[in-house]
């Protein structure tokens, strides 16, 4: 049998020897995870700065080209000789830091309009600036030196996707075009900058993001511009003074960024070391992903800091443990013996020897008083034991009798309650079903009959409104579906709407037709961004009701002018795959103090308009399908509702 001494030691030392290391390990694990999140957040912020600089470069190029077109000097030189114009273009190209600048007259626009969306947009009268990839022959036509500068020999890189190419001769350029509408000279001014081997561009990004990169510090960072998966401009070093131009990104990063189109934030192997990295996909004027923008900093200093912190914490714990254990044993020695004696007596009493007593223990203070009181209690226990034995049999009989009575009463109560609930439910179902059949089905039949009469009466003349008549049929069918859903309350097992998965894309497109009368009242643009998504488990009619309600709310929130964006994309939450629909508007958004109440029944910010049940019902429908609906405000203005549904 385990002694009291040993049990006391275990009881006292377990928290110190076992629980504290576990807590220390848990704390260090949590700290490490939070530390990694901070590093990822830092590189995400760095990547945002780099992307903003690239966007600024695009905007600056377009603005400078527009300024040239609007200048008095340009307008006057367009009537000069070809040699004067060519000299002016060369001087302007050098002054603006461009690699090419030329005038495309109206009769030559058709040659490039189909090849480049930037040219097509300028031909329509609107300036445009995009990232584009020029083939080697295109660069050669612009300038042989430009084509030569674009060539980057490929270097075999570990973990990259295997390739048979030996050189990258395409050029990634900032491609800008501005319309020219001078009387007698209508055309397009085209200019741009080659980003291949553009070290000023990439070093500027590196200086903006990592100000201490050249002098050391916590973060020693690098920046890179990729064409496809090839480094065409970088300050990553192969050796001390050799930049890693021509090396390629790892297959894992390529798949995540170029193939899947997502932003990469995390650790990645860069040329010859591990970096905390951020990769952003770059799209050209055609909307294709043609490259990546990268920033990152060495992981090694931070890993070393984590190891040192862990070792320091372990050393501190061992020191505390070495000092605490001897002190505790010395203090506990005075109470071990009396407690062991008390434990032995209690063990004998527990075995039925009620006459056992502790007697004098020789200890002063609380332990001696406890021993005396324990003997007194044992006297009382022995006396009460005799009386309890006599009461025990009588009490058992009464308990058995009361238990049987309570069990019988409880069974009757449960049976009565079930009957009452079923009666109330059947009565409600009867009233609802009768009302629906009389009040809805009859008008629905009249509508369907009259639509058929319209078709028969108009004959071929009904063709222009055939879509509207079909829409009436569809919405009347929806009414019939709603009537059928009332019947689900009576027999839900007979009406399942989720046997097959549904595709959200056509449902969203149908909803836009339904709310077109709302959108067309003002100057509202609708942008649809549909990615490949899985089929979802939901009822199509209920999903349509939710989408219509969200689009109408967005339209009303913007008034007469704005933009609605409908974004369909795949999303996995808590390990469950699914699809999400984001409805964004450019309205005033929802007041922050009311965000938590928008899904409450009868809540509305439009007093005197509506019932305030739209979002509450939408939330109920989405949750019934096993999904989630959320809301947040956008910067600088607007709101976003996201409906997430599980994959079928």
Structure keywords:
648 residues; 16 helices; 16 strands; Heat Shock Protein 90; flat
Structure description:
This protein is of the alpha+beta class and 648 residues long. Among the domains are: 266 residues, Beta-Lactamase (2-Layer Sandwich); 143 residues, Histidine kinase-like ATPase, C-terminal domain (Heat Shock Protein 90). The protein is built from 16 helices and 16 strands. Helix 15 links the parallel strand 12 and strand 13. Helix 1 runs antiparallel to helix 10, helix 6 runs antiparallel to helix 7 and helix 15 packs antiparallel against helix 16. The chain is flat and about 125 Å long. The relative contact order is 0.06.
Secondary structure blueprint with pairings:
Elements: H1 4-70, H2 72-77, H3 82-96, E1 100-105, H4 109-113, H5 117-123, E2 128-134, H6 136-142, H7 144-150, E3 152-153, E4 167-168, E5 171-182, E6 185-194, H8 199-209, E7 221-227, E8 230-234, H9 251-259, E9 264-270, E10 273-283, E11 289-298, H10 300-350, H11 366-458, H12 466-490, H13 504-514, H14 516-519, E12 523-530, H15 540-558, E13 561-573, E14 576-584, H16 614-624, E15 628-633, E16 639-646
Parallel strand pairs: 12-13
Antiparallel strand pairs: 1-6, 2-5, 3-4, 5-6, 7-8, 7-11, 9-10, 10-11, 13-14, 14-16, 15-16
């Amino acid at each position: 049998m385990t002694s009291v001494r040993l049990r006391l030691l275990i009881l006292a030392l377990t928290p110190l020897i076992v629980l504290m290391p576990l807590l220390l390990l848990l704390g260090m694990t949590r700290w490490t995870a939070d530390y990694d999140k901070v590093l990822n957040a830092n590189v995400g912020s760095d990547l945002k700065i780099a992307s903003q600089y690239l966007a600024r470069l695009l905007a600056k190029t377009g603005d400078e080209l527009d300024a040239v077109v609007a200048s008095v000097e340009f307008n006057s030189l367009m009537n000069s000789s070809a040699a004067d114009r060519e000299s002016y273009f060369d001087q302007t190209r050098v002054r603006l830091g461009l690699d090419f600048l030329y005038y495309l007259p109206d009769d030559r626009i058709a040659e490039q309009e189909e090849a480049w969306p930037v040219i097509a947009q300028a031909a329509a009268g609107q300036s445009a600036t995009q990232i584009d990839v020029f083939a080697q022959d295109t660069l050669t036509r612009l300038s042989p030196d430009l084509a030569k500068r674009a060539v980057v020999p490929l270097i075999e890189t570990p973990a990259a996707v295997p390739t048979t190419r030996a050189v990258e001769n395409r050029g990634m350029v900032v491609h800008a075009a501005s319309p020219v509408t001078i009387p007698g000279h209508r055309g397009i001014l085209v200019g741009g900058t080659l980003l291949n081997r553009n070290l000023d561009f990439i070093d500027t990004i590196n200086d903006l993001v990592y100000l201490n990169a050249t002098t050391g510090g916590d973060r020693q960072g690098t920046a890179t511009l990729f064409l496809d998966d090839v480094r065409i401009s970088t300050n990553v070093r192969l050796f001390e003074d050799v930049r890693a131009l021509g090396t390629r990104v790892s297959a894992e990063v390529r798949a995540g960024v170029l193939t899947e189109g997502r932003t990469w934030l995390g650790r990645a192997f860069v040329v010859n070391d591990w970096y905390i990295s951020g990769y952003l996909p770059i799209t050209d004027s055609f909307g294709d992903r043609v490259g990546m923008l990268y920033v990152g900093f060495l992981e090694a200093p931070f890993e070393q800091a984590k190891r040192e912190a862990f070792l320091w914490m372990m050393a501190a714990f061992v020191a505390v443990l070495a000092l605490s254990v001897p002190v505790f044993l010395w203090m506990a020695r005075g109470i071990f013996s009396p407690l062991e004696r008390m434990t032995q007596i209690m063990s004998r009493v527990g075995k039925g020897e009620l006459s056992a007593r502790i007697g004098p223990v020789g200890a002063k203070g609380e332990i001696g008083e406890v021993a005396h009181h324990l003997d007194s209690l044992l006297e009382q226990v022995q006396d009460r034991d005799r009386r309890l034995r006599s009461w025990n049999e009588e009490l058992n009989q009464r308990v058995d009798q009361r238990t049987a009575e309570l069990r019988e009463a409880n069974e009757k109560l449960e049976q009565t309650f079930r009957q009452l609930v079923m009666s109330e439910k059947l009565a409600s179902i009867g009233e609802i079903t009768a009302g629906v059949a009389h009040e809805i089905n009859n008008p629905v039949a009249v509508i369907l009959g009259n639509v058929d009469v319209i078709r028969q009466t108009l004959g071929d003349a009904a063709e222009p409104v055939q879509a509207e008549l079909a829409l009436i049929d569809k919405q009347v069918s929806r009414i019939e579906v709603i009537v059928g859903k009332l019947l689900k309350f009576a027999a839900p097992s007979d009406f399942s709407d989720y046997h097959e998965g549904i595709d959200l894309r056509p449902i969203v497109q149908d909803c836009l037709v339904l709310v077109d009368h709302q959108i067309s009242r003002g100057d509202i643009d609708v942008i649809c961004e549909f990615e490949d998504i899985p089929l979802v488990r939901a009822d199509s009619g209920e999903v349509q009701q939710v989408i219509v309600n969200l689009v109408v709310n967005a339209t009303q929130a913007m008034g007469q002018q704005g933009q609605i964006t409908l974004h369909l994309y795949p999303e996995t939450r808590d390990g469950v795959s699914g699809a999400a629909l984001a409805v964004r508007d450019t309205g005033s958004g929802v007041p922050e103090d009311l965000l938590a109440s928008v899904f409450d029944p009868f809540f509305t910010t439009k007093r005197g308009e509506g019932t305030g049940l739209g979002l509450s019902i939408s939330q109920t429908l989405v949750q019934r399908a096993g999904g989630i609906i959320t809301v947040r405000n956008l910067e600088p203005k607007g709101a976003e509702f996201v409906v997430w549904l599980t994959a079928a």
